[in-house]
C-alpha cells in the first residue's frame, strides 16, 4: 500500500455522477484498472477514445439493459488519471439500477464520496487546493461562490503558494551557501540576503492572512441576525426581504421565539438571514429561551441588523447592539418619520408594510455582504486548513529571521517550506486526505 490513500485504488469504482431521482439522462461514471474490460463487456467492445458512441448495453446473460451514449477515457489522460468511462443512460431509476448491478457483477464497486477526485489527486492530476475547488464548485449556490471555486480549480491558490515555495527554496539555498562560506572563513552577505528575503516573504503571506476571512465566509455564507424589540417588525422585514411568509407576523409582542432562518442571494453572496425573538426583560420561560437564542445568534453573526420602530422609543436592549459595524433600521415610517439618528447612527428608513426603503436596505445589505465575503475574484484562502498552513509558514519565517545561528535559520526555512507543501498536498498528505475529501458528494 502506497500510504497516500486509505482506499484501495486497485478497485474499479462506479457512481452516478448526475443527481439522483428521475431525469432525462443519468451519467454513470467508472474508473479503475477494470474500467475498459467492464465497458467492453457492457457495450460489446471498446468505443473510440473520447468519442461519444451509441451502444446497446447488455448484462452477462445478454439481456439489453439500455441504449446509451458511452465514452471511453483511457488513462492517464482522464479526470482520475486511470482508465475511465462514462455511460449516459436513460435517467430512470430502473435503468440506473440495472446497469449498476451489471457493473457490480463485473467486479466494480460503488465509489465513496469524493473518490474520483481523490484518485485524480493521488495520480497527480491536480493539487489539493484544486481538488477542494472541485468540491466547492459542485456545492456553489451563488455566482460569487462559483467564481471563487473556479479560480481555485484553475490553480489560483496553488500558483500563489508555488511561487512562495520557489522563493523560499532560493532563500534556503542562499542560507546553506552562507553556512558553507562561513566554514571557509569567507566574508559573505548571503545570510543577510536570506534574512531580508524571509522578511519580505513573511510580509506577503501576512497580507494574505489579513484578508478578513472573506474566502472562508464566501464558502460558508454570511450570517445576518435581525435584532430588535418585540413588535419592531423584524419578522415582517424578513418576509418582505425574501418575498414570502417565512415567519409568523402578529400584533402580539413576543410572537417569534425560535430563530427563523432563510437563505438569500445578495450580489452573488449567499446570506443567511436570521429572524429572532424580540429583546425584552419580560415574557415567559419560552420567550426568555428565545431571547437567549437571539443573543447567541447575534454573537455568531457577521452582521447585526438592528431594527427599531418609529412608533416606540429606541429600547436599551437593542441599542446595546448598535455599533459602527451594525446596520440600523427605523421601521414603520408609514406611521411616523424616522429619527435623524439612533444610538449615534443614521438609520435606514423603511416600512416593511409599504415596502418603502426596502431597495436601499437591500443595497446596503448587498454591499455589506460583498465587503464581508468578497466577490469571488481574488486568490483567497477558502478553508481553515489554508489559514493554518500559512500561519505556520509565517511563524517559521519569523523564527528564521530571529535565528541566532545560520543552521537554525536553515531549519526554520525548511519547516516553512513544509508548511507551504502541506497546503497544496505535496507534504504530510496522509493526515489531511480524509478531512479534505469528506465533504465531497458521491460521483465526484
Ligand atoms: N404600520 C406598520 N406596521 C408594521 C410594519 N412592520 C410590521 N408592522 C406590524 O407590527 C406588528 C409586529 O410585527 P412583527 O413582524 O410580528 O414584529 P416582530 O418584531 O417580529 O415581533 P416579535 O416577533 O414579537 O418580536 C404586526 O402587527 C405588523 O403588521 C410597518 O412597516 N408599518
Ligand atoms: K409580533
Ligand atoms: Mg417576530
UniProtKB/TrEMBL annotation:
Cellular localisation: Cytoplasm
Binding site for Mg(2+): 235, 256
Family stated for the protein in its record: Belongs to the TRAFAC class TrmE-Era-EngA-EngB-Septin-like GTPase superfamily. TrmE GTPase family.
Organism (species): Neoroseomonas lacus
One of the record's GO cellular component terms: cytoplasm
Name of this chain's protein: tRNA modification GTPase MnmE
Annotated GO biological process: tRNA methylation; tRNA wobble uridine modification
Residues covered by the TrmE-type G domain: 221-370
UniProt EC number: 3.6.-.-
Amino acid at each position: 500500500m502506497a500510504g497516500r490513500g486509505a482506499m484501495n485504488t486497485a478497485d474499479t469504482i462506479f457512481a452516478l455522477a448526475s443527481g439522483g431521482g428521475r431525469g432525462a439522462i443519468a451519467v454513470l461514471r467508472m474508473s479503475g484498472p477494470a474500467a475498459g474490460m467492464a465497458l467492453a463487456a457492457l457495450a460489446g467492445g471498446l468505443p473510440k477514445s473520447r468519442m461519444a458512441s451509441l451502444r446497446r448495453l447488455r448484462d452477462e446473460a445478454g439481456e439489453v439493459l439500455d441504449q446509451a451514449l458511452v465514452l471511453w477515457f483511457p488513462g492517464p489522460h482522464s479526470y482520475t488519471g486511470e482508465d475511465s468511462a462514462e455511460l449516459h443512460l436513460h435517467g430512470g431509476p430502473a435503468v440506473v439500477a440495472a446497469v449498476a448491478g451489471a457493473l457490480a457483477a463485473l467486479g466494480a464497486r460503488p465509489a465513496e464520496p469524493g473518490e474520483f477526485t481523490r484518485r485524480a489527486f493521488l495520480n497527480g492530476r491536480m493539487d489539493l487546493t484544486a481538488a477542494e475547488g472541485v468540491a466547492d464548485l459542485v456545492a456553489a449556490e451563488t455566482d460569487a461562490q462559483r467564481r471563487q471555486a473556479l479560480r481555485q480549480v484553475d490553480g489560483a491558490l496553488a500558483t500563489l503558494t508555488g511561487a512562495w515555495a520557489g522563493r523560499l527554496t532560493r532563500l534556503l539555498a542562499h542560507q546553506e551557501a552562507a553556512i558553507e562560506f562561513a566554514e571557509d572563513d569567507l566574508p559573505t552577505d548571503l545570510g543577510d540576503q536570506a534574512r531580508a528575503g524571509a522578511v519580505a516573504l513573511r510580509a506577503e503571506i501576512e497580507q494574505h492572512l489579513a484578508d478578513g476571512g472573506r474566502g472562508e465566509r464566501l464558502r460558508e455564507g454570511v450570517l445576518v441576525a435581525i435584532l430588535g424589540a418585540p413588535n419592531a417588525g423584524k419578522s415582517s422585514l424578513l418576509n418582505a426581504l425574501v418575498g414570502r411568509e417565512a415567519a409568523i407576523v402578529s400584533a402580539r409582542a413576543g410572537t417569534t421565539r425560535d430563530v427563523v432562518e432563510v437563505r438569500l442571494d445578495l450580489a452573488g453572496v449567499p446570506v443567511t438571514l436570521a429572524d429572532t425573538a424580540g429583546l425584552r426583560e419580560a415574557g415567559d420561560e419560552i420567550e426568555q429561551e428565545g431571547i437567549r437564542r437571539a443573543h447567541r445568534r447575534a454573537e455568531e453573526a457577521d452582521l447585526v441588523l438592528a431594527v427599531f420602530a418609529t412608533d416606540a422609543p429606541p429600547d436599551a436592549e437593542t441599542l446595546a447592539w448598535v455599533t459602527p459595524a451594525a446596520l440600523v433600521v427605523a421601521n414603520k415610517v408609514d406611521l411616523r418619520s424616522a429619527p435623524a439618528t439612533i444610538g449615534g447612527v443614521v438609520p435606514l428608513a423603511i416600512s416593511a408594510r409599504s415596502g418603502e426603503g426596502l431597495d436601499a436596505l437591500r443595497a446596503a445589505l448587498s454591499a455589506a455582504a460583498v465587503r464581508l465575503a468578497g466577490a469571488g475574484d481574488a486568490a483567497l484562502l477558502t478553508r481553515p486548513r489554508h489559514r493554518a498552513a500559512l500561519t505556520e509558514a509565517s511563524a517559521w519565517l519569523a523564527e528564521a529571521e530571529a535565528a541566532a545561528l545560520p543552521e537554525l535559520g536553515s531549519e526554520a526555512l525548511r519547516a516553512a517550506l513544509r508548511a507551504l507543501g502541506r497546503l497544496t498536498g505535496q507534504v504530510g498528505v496522509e493526515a489531511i486526505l480524509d478531512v479534505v475529501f469528506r465533504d465531497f458528494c458521491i460521483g465526484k
